[in-house]
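Figure 2 data, in text form.
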Amino acid sequence: MAALVETRNLTKSFAGFKAVDDVSLAIEEGTIHAIIGPNGAGKTTFFNLLSGFITPTAGTICFKGRDITGMDPPHVARLGMVRSFQINSIFTHLTVLDNVKVSLESKTELPSRFWLSSAATRRLEPRALELLSAVGLEKEKDLLAVQLSYGRKRALELAISLAQEPEILLLDEPTAGMGSEDIGSISQLIGRAAKERTVVLVEHNLSVVADLSNRITVMQRGKVLVEGTYQEVRADQRVIDAYLGGGAAAHA
């Protein structure tokens, strides 16, 4: 399969410390690719680089063969690479339905117009309801987002992200802070979303990684330690040492 996203010698330094160190990685189209590693491995920094939230010190990022190195997050999103599972992306005092409509509006000419009436966005409602149904929130459509449980807010964030029609969805610790019931529900939603797009996730829950991922990259101290299937990664002595042998907590 072709690489949808590719990094070459990607590096990010902070005051001389290399949080991401010479990372070359290919994410194949149509796969779920997990980025895991001990705390401090550079996973979040790598995600921030991919999504445009920080600029690399060196190296390049290509999306569909186009160099997007240093491009800001709105431009990255408009190209089709959307980052999800950031709680602050929700408008807590809008309804669940209106949250999704706002995301849909950003893909139209409507955001550049002033004094919009409710009728102006009514045509977006069928698609918004379809997205809410896809994540199991159709019954909560008239609730304020602030009234949702933590797990249901995560489902709403997924609907908001899917409204952007991404080709690749970046999920940053999608099950963090969840109970087992919510973890199972969100995992199923991610699996369904991945049937139509590429997904990259940073995830601490290794059972979620095992269930969902086609490919796994393990990072340690800013570098790629090993890459492969879950079975290959799990059996690799370098991974065992990274998680258990060096005093690091056994977290992905």
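Caption note: Confidence is low (pLDDT under 50) at residues 110-116, 246-252.
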